[in-house]
Specification:
mainly alpha; two-stranded antiparallel ribbon; 21 helices; globular
């Protein structure tokens, strides 16, 4: 299980130089997938049309505002009957069950089709204005309202609207606390009904908020335009603070850790004293002698705090916790000292190999390329094919709903008569060719290769940094014996020899992540199905026999399925974390010895098992230092940004005048955290590499003159081994 420890090798001087290609089969598969990914992008680029996303599409599938088409000067989408739309998201997705046409401008006044008929003899301009919102212009309004609605040629009424997201949305406003549309609260809908602004607002839910978002977006843009250089300066300062913190860790790591642990012990001690004080104060009070069992389960938590037993239980728990913390610090003090010494050594390694701090920029560049390629390919795939039309009914109770249809002949079919109010609306782009039938499969392939590439980029970075820091550790004399350009050398080795191994490890992670995404998708689909089942149960006739039993049976099955889904999600989350940890250490072994992925993972696992206590202590100490460093950098920059953007430093510097000071403040805080995370991710990889090398060093050597350690002299006095001799004394 633990494997055999390493033996002394006088020829071993650090990362192996003479190595061969590993996991060639996986390398070939990886290259084939990349070639297929490129071909997929080219095919999607040929068949797809992103203008279908940029331009709104009418009910016929024609683009609004596209150059070289009859709609070139009609860039706005207009909805015939807005009352049939249930929410803004439905309209944005072009699934509102009403006719949609392209217009050059939105209506600016109230007008019904009946009014145009009455005014036509005396005022033809009303019909001229109204007809621009019909499918095609008519010479005169001599057709009846029922005929117009039957043929779906014109809207029954138009309302004052404003263009937003290239769509006509109602012009909502508030007057004296009353919601209005075009300064009116009541208006005719063109079908003989009087409507109010509230009904229109309910039909187009949240539209007013979306319109308000436009002015909000403009104000946010102004704030960014005013403070962009301050934001950039804050990120630069965050970068400098992160670098300074890493350099100073060699002097402050131990101090920070022991101060923090002293604080933990002190806080728990104060908790014990407070519990004893409350326990003593409740002595003699009425009903304080009752037990928790006596009062049972209560929603008012304060009732439990009036019992002596509650505070006594708290005190016992805190005493046990205090004892565990103190005993852990006592019995693991040597391992904690080793971990702190390795943290200090990591700070020194970064100082000797400073180029590693710029590697996150390269990782960010690779990730940006992968994300952009995936997003563009997904858009082109989604917009491939010809317009597909589907039947949509306002009430959602038509048996032909969601079936494909032809908008040219839909009004003459029996479906329009069987489902009054049903519309043949553009749904999406597709086709009947083999390519169009497999677009969903190609989208899955696009997502899978994207996950594989993302994990490969992270694996490449970890292996490269591990090779650079391993070169530092195994140098006999530091920094004289550190190879030149260790980062670039390690990057070249990883790409040239170990692309297959890195692809193997990232493939395992990609498969696990893909399965987790499938679980999430199935969970969403099941929730939708449960909602539909619930609605069906509630819509059942009250006189039907067995309605409750039919509803109760699926409920128990749903609870079981929910439990199984939660178990699967938890298991695969844990599996992903475990694989990430094992891969990380396997990449370190690959960088040092140049073996294949499976053997490196096995050797790393056995090494960690043989040093399991050191691993646990090292992991927690490192996590503490990294979290503290991120909080320190982010907090300092956040406080400075708050004082600047709220104009509370008038003596030192005059802050900018802003609409919302929290906009640049949050940007600076989040950006500072990401900058600090990038720096400390390098430091974390440095510590992991030094720890693996340290464990290997302890197994290979014994500290004698013949087998001296490569570890730093600062660690010599901590280890209870033979008299340790630094490697440089071997000469």
């Amino acid at each position: 299980m633990r494997g055999d420890p390493r033996t002394f090798d006088p020829d071993f001087k650090g990362p192996v130089v003479n190595r061969s290609c590993t996991d060639v089969l996986c390398f070939i598969i990886f290259i084939l997938f990349i070639i297929g990914y490129i071909i997929l992008g080219l095919i999607a680029w040929v068949h797809g049309d992103p203008r279908r996303v940029a331009y709104p599409t009418d009910s016929q599938g024609h683009f609004c505002g596209q150059k070289g088409t009859p709609n070139e000067n009609k860039s706005i989408l207009f909805y015939f009957n807005l009352f049939s739309c249930t929410s803004p998201s439905v309209m944005v997705n072009l699934q509102c069950p009403t006719t949609q046409i392209c217009v050059s401008k939105c209506p600016e006044k109230f007008l019904t089709y009946v009014e145009t008929q009455l005014l036509y003899k005396n005022d033809k301009t009303s019909w001229t204005y109204y007809s621009q919102f019909c499918k095609s212009p008519f010479p005169k309004s001599d057709r009846s309202l029922s005929q117009i609605l039957m043929d779906d040629d014109c809207p029954a009424a138009i309302f004052p609207s404003k263009p937003f997201l290239q769509r006509c949305f109602p012009d909502f406003s508030t007057k004296n606390g009353t919601l209005t549309v075009g300064n009116k609260t009541m208006f005719e809908d063109g079908k003989g009904k009087t409507r109010n602004a509230g009904e229109l607002r309910a039909a187009a839910n949240r539209i007013n908020k979306i319109l308000d978002a436009k002015s909000l977006g403009m104000r946010l843009f102004e704030d960014y335009a005013t403070t962009w250089y301050w934001i950039l300066m804050g990120l630069i300062i965050a970068m400098l603070l992160s670098w300074i913190f890493l350099i100073l860790l060699r002097f402050t790591a131990g101090f920070l850790f022991w101060v923090f642990m002293s604080g933990v012990v002190g806080v728990i001690g104060y908790g014990i004293w407070h519990c004893y004080k409350e326990y003593n104060n409740l002595r003699g009070r009425q009903n304080s002698h009752f037990t928790i069992y006596d009062i049972g389960i209560q929603t008012d938590i304060s009732m439990y705090l009036q019992l002596r037993q509650t505070w006594f239980a708290f005190m016992i728990i805190l005493c046990i916790l205090e004892a565990l913390v103190i005993l852990t610090l006592i019995f693991l003090r040597n391992r904690i000292r080793i971990s702190i010494a390795l943290l200090k050594e990591g700070s020194k390694a970064i100082r000797y190999v400073p180029t590693t701090l710029i590697y996150p920029v390269l990782t960010f560049t690779f990730l940006s390329i992968c994300i952009c390629y995936w997003a563009v390919t997904a858009v082109y795939l989604a917009t491939s094919g010809l317009p597909i039309y589907k039947i949509i009914a306002p009430a959602g109770q038509c048996k032909h709903e969601n079936k494909t249809c032809d908008p040219e002949i839909f009004n003459t079919t029996e479906i329009s008569k069987a489902c009054p109010g049903a519309q043949c609306i553009f749904a999406f782009y597709g086709g009947k060719s083999v390519y169009h039938q497999y677009i969903p499969t190609l989208q899955i392939f696009n997502l899978f290769v994207f996950l594989w590439l993302i994990n490969f980029v992270f694996a490449l970075g970890q292996c490269t940094l591990a090779g650079a820091f391993a070169s530092y550790y195994w140098a006999s004399k530091k920094p004289e014996d550190i190879p030149p350009y260790p980062l670039f050398t390690a990057f070249g080795r990883a790409i040239r020899y170990h692309t297959g191994s890195l692809a193997f490890g990232s493939l395992i992670l990609a498969l696990i992540q893909m399965f987790r995404i499938v679980l999430e998708y199935l969970d969403k689909r099941l929730k939708v199905l449960r909602t539909r089942e619930c609605k069906t149960c509630w819509l059942s006739e009250p006189g039907e026999v067995g309605t409750i039993s039919r509803a109760a049976a699926p409920e128990s099955q749903n609870n079981i399925s929910k439990f199984l889904q939660c178990c699967l999600k938890c298991c695969f989350w844990c599996l992903e974390k475990a694989v990430k940890f094992l891969n990380r250490n396997a990449y370190v072994m690959i960088a040092i010895y140049g073996k294949n992925f499976c053997r490196s993972a096995r050797d790393a696992f056995n090494l960690l098992i043989r040093n399991v206590l050191k691993v646990a202590v090292m992991d927690k100490v490192t996590d503490f230092v990294l979290i503290l460093g991120k909080m320190l950098v982010t907090g300092c920059i956040g406080v400075l940004a708050f004082l600047l953007f709220t104009e509370r430093l008038p003596i030192l510097i005059e802050g900018p005048s802003l609409n919302y000071y929290w906009v640049p403040l949050l940007t600076v805080v989040i950006g500072s955290y990401l900058v600090a995370h990038g720096f400390f991710s390098v430091y974390a990889m440095c510590i992991d590499t030094l720890f693996i090398c340290f464990c290997e060093d302890l197994e290979r050597n014994d500290g004698s003159t013949e087998k001296p350690y490569f570890i730093a002299p600062t660690l010599h006095g901590i280890l209870n081994k033979k008299q340790l001799v630094p490697q440089k004394q071997k000469e």
